[in-house]
Amino acid sequence: RWIRGGRKPSGSSRYWIFGTLFMSTRSSTLVVYPGNVRQYLIEDRLWAMPRFGYGWDHLTRRGTRAGVELTTGAAGEQAGLVLANVFVMWGPPRK
């Protein structure tokens, strides 16, 4: 995360997000053989994709941090992802 211009005295900030997102996926395909024998073919994959986005947060004087992040990324032939994160964190009081 790269904070643009630092945190304001009110505790608010905006920041860019750059990095790599690793995502584990599992897909299954039903195969029906003669005699109505059914079997699933399961494939597990690990995707690594570039991630780019933007975030907003606010840090209170008591140390609570709340924010929202919107990011996007894609890997190989997969369709692009749009991810939205909402978070609340607690920490030491802000000085």
Structural overview:
The protein has no helices and five strands. The protein is mainly β. A five-stranded antiparallel β-sheet has the order 1-2-3-4-5, with no helix packed on it.
Largest sheet: 5 strands, antiparallel
What is the H/E string?
EEEEE
Rg (CA only)? 21 Å
Query: Percentage of helical residues?
Result: under 10%
**Which structural class fits the helix and strand makeup?**
mainly beta
Low-confidence stretches: none
Distance between the terminal alpha carbons, to the nearest Å? 22 Å
Tell me the strand percentage band.
over 45%
Average residue pLDDT: 88
**Overall geometric form:** elongated
Read across the widest sheet, the strand sequence of neighbours is: 1-2-3-4-5
Helices, by number, come to: 0
| Topology, number of strands | 5
